[in-house]
Design the sequence.
């Protein structure tokens, strides 16, 4: 048996799914993996891509380690691309051909929340400049702020300011947690986090997004694929979590081996 084919069988995927997994995991950084997957999904016929992803997602749900690692990059891509055309095409294929594993990552909320009232946007923080700073000035400040400025920048309502701040090497995980967990949620700030592999790769950041009741489902749902068993248990047991997220987490938990769940998790599946 050829080595590549044998490796695919041992990893739980074969054929096109094995080749996709091998290419993705052969790239050294998450950002490169996400970019490659996006190019693949934009250029590959939707029916073929959907079938390949279904097999990969199914292996991931069985806790195959290689498949789970590859699906992590897929989850990051879908979280940041929920409104793009290639995602809609994948969703159509998943619905038409009952691709249940892929479909779990692409579900739509039954009803979308009404658009936010821009008049209720939080005010621009007082940067003690004697006037309201422009967006450009605040972005410049976000590039090299002092710790005293961080508190103000973390509450800035403009997504470009938040995006610039997320690239700052002095930003800490606890700082980003404050953005991800803020109530009411700021969808554009959460999307800025979703576009940063540096921060979305952190389990605490992902869970803060998932547990925030104001997180857009299209952003949050794919991230369930990256959850551990204990994180799924926490999702299912949280009354504040979006109902669609909670029900999908329950499905994933039921499918996740081993089937003999710990005693403290049994009640969440009732």
Sequence:
């Amino acid at each position: 048996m050829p080595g590549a084919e044998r490796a695919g069988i041992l990893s739980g995927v074969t054929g096109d799914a094995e080749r996709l997994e091998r290419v993705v995991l052969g790239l050294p950084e998450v950002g490169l993996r996400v970019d490659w997957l996006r190019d693949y999904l934009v250029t590959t016929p939707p029916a073929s891509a959907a079938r390949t992803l279904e097999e990969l997602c199914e292996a991931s749900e069985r806790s195959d380690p290689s498949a789970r690692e590859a699906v992590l990059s897929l989850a990051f891509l879908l979280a940041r691309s929920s409104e793009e055309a290639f995602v809609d095409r994948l969703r159509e294929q998943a619905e038409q051909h009952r691709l249940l594993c892929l479909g779990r990552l692409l579900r739509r909320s039954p009803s979308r929340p009404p658009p936010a009232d821009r008049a209720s946007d939080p005010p621009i923080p007082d940067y003690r400049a004697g006037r309201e700073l422009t967006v450009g000035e605040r972005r410049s400040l976000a590039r090299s702020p002092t710790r005293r400025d961080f508190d103000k920048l973390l509450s800035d309502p403009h997504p470009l300011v938040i995006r610039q701040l997320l690239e700052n090497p002095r930003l800490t995980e606890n700082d980003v947690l404050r953005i991800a967990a803020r109530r009411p949620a700021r969808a554009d700030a959460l999307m800025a986090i979703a576009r940063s592999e540096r921060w979305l790769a952190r389990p605490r950041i992902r869970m803060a997004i998932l547990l925030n009741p104001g997180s857009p489902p299209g952003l949050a749902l794919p991230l369930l694929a990256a959850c551990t068993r204990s994180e799924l248990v926490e999702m299912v047991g949280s009354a504040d979590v979006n109902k669609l997220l909670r029900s999908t987490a329950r499905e994933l938990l039921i499918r996740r081996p081993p089937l003999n769940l710990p005693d403290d998790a049994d009640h969440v599946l009732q």
About this structure: The chain has a mean pLDDT of 87. The chain has 18 helices and no strands. The first helix runs from residue 3 to 11. Residues 7-105 form one domain.
